[in-house]
Amino acid sequence: MKILVTGGAGFIGSQVAAAFCGGGHAVTVLDNLSSGKEANIPAQAEFVEADIASPQAAELVADGGFQVIDHHAAQVSVPYSVKDPLFDLHSNLTGLLNLLEAGRKASLERFIFISSGGAVYGELEGAPVDESYPARPLSPYAVSKRSGELYLDYYAAQHGLGTVMLRYANVYGPRQVPHAEAGVVAIFMDCLVKGEQPTIYRPDDLPGGMLRDYAFVGDVVRANLLALEQGSGVYNIGTGVATDTLGLWQAVQRAAGKELGHQFGPVRQGDIRYSALDCAHAKQGLGWAPQYDLDAGLAETWAWRTGQ
Ligand SMILES: NC(=O)c1ccc[n+]([C@@H]2O[C@H](COP(=O)([O-])OP(=O)(O)OC[C@H]3O[C@@H](n4cnc5c(N)ncnc54)[C@H](O)[C@@H]3O)[C@@H](O)[C@H]2O)c1
Protein backbone atom coordinates (compact mmCIF):
# COMPACT_ATOMS: atom_id res chain seq x y z
CA MET A 1 0.00 0.00 0.00
CA LYS A 2 1.02 3.61 -0.48
CA ILE A 3 0.71 5.35 2.88
CA LEU A 4 1.23 8.92 4.05
CA VAL A 5 2.20 9.18 7.73
CA THR A 6 1.85 12.71 9.06
CA GLY A 7 3.89 13.47 12.17
CA GLY A 8 6.20 10.62 11.16
CA ALA A 9 9.24 12.35 12.67
CA GLY A 10 7.65 12.35 16.14
CA PHE A 11 7.63 9.94 19.07
CA ILE A 12 4.72 7.72 18.00
CA GLY A 13 4.35 8.52 14.26
CA SER A 14 7.97 7.59 13.50
CA GLN A 15 7.50 4.14 15.03
CA VAL A 16 4.24 3.66 13.13
CA ALA A 17 6.03 4.67 9.90
CA ALA A 18 8.82 2.18 10.63
CA ALA A 19 6.30 -0.62 11.23
CA PHE A 20 4.55 0.20 7.92
CA CYS A 21 7.90 0.13 6.10
CA GLY A 22 8.68 -3.19 7.80
CA GLY A 23 5.36 -4.53 6.48
CA GLY A 24 6.47 -3.80 2.91
CA HIS A 25 4.38 -0.65 2.42
CA ALA A 26 5.59 2.41 0.51
CA VAL A 27 5.68 5.17 3.13
CA THR A 28 5.94 8.94 2.82
CA VAL A 29 6.38 11.02 5.98
CA LEU A 30 4.96 14.54 6.12
CA ASP A 31 6.25 16.56 9.08
CA ASN A 32 7.20 20.19 9.74
CA LEU A 33 9.81 19.14 12.35
CA SER A 34 8.27 21.48 14.93
CA SER A 35 8.84 18.86 17.62
CA GLY A 36 9.88 15.79 15.60
CA LYS A 37 13.42 14.90 14.54
CA GLU A 38 14.59 13.99 11.08
CA ALA A 39 16.73 11.22 12.62
CA ASN A 40 13.52 9.44 13.74
CA ILE A 41 12.23 9.02 10.18
CA PRO A 42 12.81 5.49 8.87
CA ALA A 43 15.46 5.34 6.14
CA GLN A 44 13.10 3.53 3.73
CA ALA A 45 10.49 6.31 3.90
CA GLU A 46 10.34 9.36 1.68
CA PHE A 47 10.30 12.61 3.62
CA VAL A 48 8.45 15.82 2.80
CA GLU A 49 9.08 18.70 5.18
CA ALA A 50 5.92 20.82 5.25
CA ASP A 51 3.10 21.93 7.49
CA ILE A 52 -0.11 19.88 7.24
CA ALA A 53 -2.10 23.09 6.77
CA SER A 54 0.03 24.25 3.82
CA PRO A 55 -0.77 24.21 0.08
CA GLN A 56 2.32 21.97 -0.31
CA ALA A 57 0.68 19.33 1.91
CA ALA A 58 -2.55 19.50 -0.12
CA GLU A 59 -0.53 19.07 -3.34
CA LEU A 60 1.30 16.09 -1.90
CA VAL A 61 -2.00 14.38 -1.06
CA ALA A 62 -3.56 15.35 -4.41
CA ASP A 63 -0.67 13.97 -6.47
CA GLY A 64 0.80 11.27 -4.21
CA GLY A 65 -1.58 8.41 -5.06
CA PHE A 66 -1.93 7.44 -1.38
CA GLN A 67 -4.45 4.79 -0.38
CA VAL A 68 -4.13 5.54 3.32
CA ILE A 69 -3.31 8.58 5.44
CA ASP A 70 -2.26 7.83 9.01
CA HIS A 71 -2.55 11.18 10.75
CA HIS A 72 -0.32 11.69 13.77
CA ALA A 73 0.79 15.31 13.21
CA ALA A 74 -0.75 17.68 15.73
CA GLN A 75 -0.20 20.43 18.21
CA VAL A 76 0.02 18.01 21.16
CA SER A 77 0.26 20.19 24.28
CA VAL A 78 -2.85 20.74 26.41
CA PRO A 79 -1.41 23.79 28.27
CA TYR A 80 -0.26 25.32 24.97
CA SER A 81 -3.76 24.86 23.51
CA VAL A 82 -5.12 26.86 26.47
CA LYS A 83 -2.51 29.57 25.91
CA ASP A 84 -3.01 29.80 22.15
CA PRO A 85 -6.27 28.13 21.05
CA LEU A 86 -6.07 29.68 17.58
CA PHE A 87 -2.75 27.98 16.91
CA ASP A 88 -4.22 24.69 18.13
CA LEU A 89 -7.21 25.17 15.82
CA HIS A 90 -4.93 25.87 12.85
CA SER A 91 -2.78 22.77 13.34
CA ASN A 92 -5.36 20.34 14.55
CA LEU A 93 -8.41 21.26 12.46
CA THR A 94 -7.35 23.43 9.49
CA GLY A 95 -4.47 21.00 8.95
CA LEU A 96 -6.80 18.01 9.20
CA LEU A 97 -9.34 19.50 6.78
CA ASN A 98 -6.59 20.41 4.34
CA LEU A 99 -5.63 16.72 4.17
CA LEU A 100 -9.22 15.44 4.11
CA GLU A 101 -10.30 17.74 1.28
CA ALA A 102 -7.24 16.93 -0.83
CA GLY A 103 -7.75 13.22 -0.07
CA ARG A 104 -11.42 13.31 -1.04
CA LYS A 105 -10.57 14.78 -4.44
CA ALA A 106 -7.78 12.26 -4.92
CA SER A 107 -10.00 9.28 -4.00
CA LEU A 108 -8.15 8.36 -0.85
CA GLU A 109 -9.51 5.09 0.58
CA ARG A 110 -8.81 5.24 4.28
CA PHE A 111 -7.95 7.82 6.93
CA ILE A 112 -6.60 6.80 10.33
CA PHE A 113 -7.06 9.71 12.74
CA ILE A 114 -5.25 9.84 16.05
CA SER A 115 -7.45 11.16 18.81
CA SER A 116 -6.96 11.22 22.56
CA GLY A 117 -8.90 9.12 25.06
CA GLY A 118 -7.11 10.96 27.85
CA ALA A 119 -8.55 14.26 26.57
CA VAL A 120 -11.90 13.83 24.78
CA TYR A 121 -13.83 12.22 27.66
CA GLY A 122 -12.82 14.85 30.20
CA GLU A 123 -13.03 13.98 33.90
CA LEU A 124 -14.15 10.39 34.58
CA GLU A 125 -15.79 8.91 37.62
CA GLY A 126 -13.29 6.24 38.63
CA ALA A 127 -13.90 3.33 36.25
CA PRO A 128 -12.63 2.72 32.69
CA VAL A 129 -15.02 4.03 30.04
CA ASP A 130 -15.90 2.69 26.60
CA GLU A 131 -16.47 4.70 23.42
CA SER A 132 -20.15 5.31 24.18
CA TYR A 133 -19.26 7.50 27.18
CA PRO A 134 -20.13 11.13 26.39
CA ALA A 135 -17.22 13.31 25.34
CA ARG A 136 -16.77 16.35 27.59
CA PRO A 137 -13.63 18.08 26.32
CA LEU A 138 -12.03 20.38 28.91
CA SER A 139 -9.34 22.10 26.80
CA PRO A 140 -8.99 23.51 23.28
CA TYR A 141 -6.77 20.48 22.49
CA ALA A 142 -9.56 18.12 23.56
CA VAL A 143 -12.12 20.15 21.59
CA SER A 144 -9.96 19.98 18.46
CA LYS A 145 -9.49 16.20 18.79
CA ARG A 146 -13.24 15.63 19.28
CA SER A 147 -14.06 17.99 16.42
CA GLY A 148 -11.61 16.09 14.22
CA GLU A 149 -13.56 12.91 14.93
CA LEU A 150 -16.81 14.63 13.91
CA TYR A 151 -15.24 15.77 10.64
CA LEU A 152 -14.18 12.19 9.96
CA ASP A 153 -17.76 11.02 10.62
CA TYR A 154 -18.91 13.55 8.03
CA TYR A 155 -16.37 12.39 5.40
CA ALA A 156 -17.33 8.75 6.07
CA ALA A 157 -21.07 9.39 5.79
CA GLN A 158 -21.11 11.85 2.88
CA HIS A 159 -18.03 10.87 0.88
CA GLY A 160 -17.65 7.16 1.68
CA LEU A 161 -14.17 7.59 3.16
CA GLY A 162 -12.99 4.64 5.26
CA THR A 163 -12.20 6.02 8.71
CA VAL A 164 -10.61 4.68 11.85
CA MET A 165 -10.17 6.90 14.90
CA LEU A 166 -7.82 5.73 17.60
CA ARG A 167 -8.30 7.34 21.01
CA TYR A 168 -4.94 6.80 22.67
CA ALA A 169 -4.47 6.64 26.42
CA ASN A 170 -1.21 8.12 27.85
CA VAL A 171 1.43 6.69 25.56
CA TYR A 172 5.00 6.06 26.74
CA GLY A 173 8.05 4.29 25.37
CA PRO A 174 11.30 4.76 23.47
CA ARG A 175 11.76 8.13 21.69
CA GLN A 176 9.44 10.03 24.02
CA VAL A 177 11.07 13.27 25.06
CA PRO A 178 10.67 14.81 28.51
CA HIS A 179 8.67 18.02 28.18
CA ALA A 180 7.71 20.10 31.18
CA GLU A 181 4.02 19.27 31.00
CA ALA A 182 3.76 15.84 29.37
CA GLY A 183 5.52 12.54 28.96
CA VAL A 184 5.72 11.73 32.68
CA VAL A 185 7.54 8.43 32.08
CA ALA A 186 10.24 10.24 30.10
CA ILE A 187 10.42 12.92 32.82
CA PHE A 188 10.79 10.32 35.58
CA MET A 189 13.51 8.46 33.65
CA ASP A 190 15.30 11.75 33.10
CA CYS A 191 15.17 12.39 36.85
CA LEU A 192 16.74 8.97 37.51
CA VAL A 193 19.51 9.54 34.97
CA LYS A 194 20.29 12.98 36.45
CA GLY A 195 19.78 11.92 40.10
CA GLU A 196 17.12 14.60 40.61
CA GLN A 197 14.03 13.91 42.69
CA PRO A 198 10.74 14.40 40.81
CA THR A 199 7.74 16.31 42.13
CA ILE A 200 4.52 14.34 42.32
CA TYR A 201 1.53 16.64 42.07
CA ARG A 202 -1.46 15.53 44.13
CA PRO A 203 -4.66 16.89 45.61
CA ASP A 204 -5.35 16.37 49.32
CA ASP A 205 -7.70 13.44 48.75
CA LEU A 206 -5.49 11.46 46.31
CA PRO A 207 -2.34 10.48 48.24
CA GLY A 208 -0.68 8.90 45.19
CA GLY A 209 -1.65 11.70 42.80
CA MET A 210 -3.73 11.56 39.62
CA LEU A 211 -4.61 8.24 37.96
CA ARG A 212 -3.88 7.52 34.31
CA ASP A 213 -3.97 4.68 31.81
CA TYR A 214 -0.41 4.15 30.49
CA ALA A 215 -0.11 2.43 27.08
CA PHE A 216 3.18 1.19 25.66
CA VAL A 217 4.08 2.59 22.24
CA GLY A 218 4.66 -0.89 20.77
CA ASP A 219 1.03 -1.77 21.47
CA VAL A 220 -0.14 1.52 19.99
CA VAL A 221 1.90 0.89 16.81
CA ARG A 222 0.26 -2.53 16.45
CA ALA A 223 -3.19 -0.92 16.58
CA ASN A 224 -2.19 1.25 13.59
CA LEU A 225 -0.99 -1.79 11.65
CA LEU A 226 -4.33 -3.52 12.22
CA ALA A 227 -6.27 -0.35 11.37
CA LEU A 228 -4.75 -0.35 7.87
CA GLU A 229 -7.20 -3.04 6.85
CA GLN A 230 -9.69 -3.56 9.64
CA GLY A 231 -12.26 -1.66 11.63
CA SER A 232 -14.20 1.53 11.18
CA GLY A 233 -15.23 4.27 13.57
CA VAL A 234 -13.71 5.01 16.95
CA TYR A 235 -11.62 2.77 19.23
CA ASN A 236 -10.06 3.28 22.65
CA ILE A 237 -6.42 2.21 22.69
CA GLY A 238 -5.14 1.81 26.24
CA THR A 239 -4.94 -0.86 28.93
CA GLY A 240 -7.96 -0.29 31.21
CA VAL A 241 -5.56 -0.11 34.17
CA ALA A 242 -5.33 3.16 36.10
CA THR A 243 -2.01 3.84 37.82
CA ASP A 244 -1.44 6.81 40.11
CA THR A 245 1.63 9.01 39.69
CA LEU A 246 3.33 7.64 42.79
CA GLY A 247 2.72 4.06 41.61
CA LEU A 248 4.19 4.98 38.25
CA TRP A 249 7.28 6.52 39.88
CA GLN A 250 7.75 3.33 41.93
CA ALA A 251 7.38 1.18 38.79
CA VAL A 252 9.93 3.34 36.90
CA GLN A 253 12.40 2.94 39.79
CA ARG A 254 11.80 -0.85 39.76
CA ALA A 255 12.48 -0.99 36.01
CA ALA A 256 15.70 1.00 36.50
CA GLY A 257 16.78 -0.93 39.61
CA LYS A 258 17.40 2.42 41.36
CA GLU A 259 15.80 4.28 44.22
CA LEU A 260 15.62 8.01 44.63
CA GLY A 261 13.29 10.02 46.83
CA HIS A 262 10.52 12.31 45.61
CA GLN A 263 8.62 15.31 46.82
CA PHE A 264 4.97 16.19 46.61
CA GLY A 265 3.56 19.38 45.11
CA PRO A 266 0.10 20.93 44.84
CA VAL A 267 -2.03 19.76 41.96
CA ARG A 268 -1.78 21.75 38.72
CA GLN A 269 -4.89 23.56 37.56
CA GLY A 270 -6.93 21.68 34.97
CA ASP A 271 -5.30 18.28 35.58
CA ILE A 272 -7.81 15.45 35.18
CA ARG A 273 -7.98 13.26 38.31
CA TYR A 274 -8.82 9.91 36.73
CA SER A 275 -8.65 8.53 33.23
CA ALA A 276 -8.72 4.92 32.01
CA LEU A 277 -10.03 3.32 28.83
CA ASP A 278 -12.08 0.17 28.34
CA CYS A 279 -10.64 -1.37 25.16
CA ALA A 280 -13.08 -4.27 24.52
CA HIS A 281 -14.31 -2.60 21.31
CA ALA A 282 -10.79 -2.58 19.81
CA LYS A 283 -10.54 -6.30 20.49
CA GLN A 284 -13.80 -6.87 18.67
CA GLY A 285 -13.28 -4.51 15.73
CA LEU A 286 -9.51 -4.53 15.22
CA GLY A 287 -8.49 -7.80 16.85
CA TRP A 288 -6.30 -5.66 19.11
CA ALA A 289 -5.48 -5.99 22.79
CA PRO A 290 -2.49 -4.63 24.70
CA GLN A 291 0.37 -7.10 25.11
CA TYR A 292 2.58 -5.09 27.45
CA ASP A 293 1.86 -4.53 31.11
CA LEU A 294 3.45 -1.51 32.78
CA ASP A 295 6.53 -3.36 34.08
CA ALA A 296 7.32 -4.90 30.66
CA GLY A 297 6.84 -1.59 28.84
CA LEU A 298 8.93 0.35 31.35
CA ALA A 299 11.74 -2.24 31.18
CA GLU A 300 11.93 -1.78 27.41
CA THR A 301 11.78 2.00 27.73
CA TRP A 302 14.54 2.08 30.36
CA ALA A 303 16.75 -0.17 28.18
CA TRP A 304 16.30 2.34 25.34
CA ARG A 305 16.91 5.35 27.64
CA THR A 306 20.17 3.97 29.00
CA GLY A 307 21.33 2.47 25.71
CA GLN A 308 21.65 5.91 24.14
N1 LIG B 1 1.83 10.90 23.47
C1 LIG B 1 0.63 10.63 23.96
O1 LIG B 1 0.47 10.20 25.10
C2 LIG B 1 -0.62 10.84 23.11
C3 LIG B 1 -1.88 10.56 23.67
C4 LIG B 1 -3.02 10.74 22.90
C5 LIG B 1 -2.91 11.19 21.59
N2 LIG B 1 -1.69 11.49 21.09
C6 LIG B 1 -1.62 11.97 19.71
O2 LIG B 1 -0.66 11.19 19.00
C7 LIG B 1 -0.07 11.99 17.97
C8 LIG B 1 1.44 11.93 18.04
O3 LIG B 1 1.86 12.44 19.31
P1 LIG B 1 3.36 12.30 19.85
O4 LIG B 1 3.25 12.08 21.31
O5 LIG B 1 4.11 11.34 19.00
O6 LIG B 1 3.89 13.80 19.66
P2 LIG B 1 5.18 14.36 18.86
O7 LIG B 1 5.24 15.81 19.18
O8 LIG B 1 6.37 13.52 19.16
O9 LIG B 1 4.77 14.13 17.35
C9 LIG B 1 4.02 15.05 16.60
C10 LIG B 1 4.71 15.20 15.26
O10 LIG B 1 3.91 16.04 14.43
C11 LIG B 1 4.74 17.05 13.84
N3 LIG B 1 3.87 18.21 13.64
C12 LIG B 1 3.26 18.97 14.59
N4 LIG B 1 2.52 19.92 14.01
C13 LIG B 1 2.65 19.77 12.68
C14 LIG B 1 2.13 20.46 11.55
N5 LIG B 1 1.30 21.50 11.71
N6 LIG B 1 2.48 20.05 10.31
C15 LIG B 1 3.32 18.99 10.14
N7 LIG B 1 3.85 18.30 11.17
C16 LIG B 1 3.52 18.69 12.42
C17 LIG B 1 5.85 17.29 14.83
O11 LIG B 1 7.03 17.85 14.27
C18 LIG B 1 6.09 15.87 15.37
O12 LIG B 1 7.01 15.17 14.57
C19 LIG B 1 -0.67 13.39 18.14
O13 LIG B 1 -1.76 13.53 17.25
C20 LIG B 1 -1.14 13.39 19.58
O14 LIG B 1 -2.19 14.32 19.78
C21 LIG B 1 -0.54 11.32 21.80
Q: What are the salient characteristics of this protein?
A:
alpha/beta; 3-stranded mixed beta sheet; binds nicotinamide-adenine-dinucleotide; Rossmann fold; single chain; 308 residues
Description:
The chain is of the alpha/beta class. The chain has a domain at 2-168 and 214-238 and 278-290: NAD(P)-binding Rossmann-like Domain (Rossmann fold, 3-Layer(aba) Sandwich). It is built from 11 helices and 12 strands. The protein has a 7-stranded parallel sheet, sandwiched between helices. Helix 1 (11-22) links the parallel strand 1 (2-6) and strand 2 (26-31). Helix 1 crosses helix 8. The model has no long low-confidence stretch (mean pLDDT 96). The site of nicotinamide-adenine-dinucleotide has 28 residues, from helix 1, helix 4, strand 5 and strand 7.
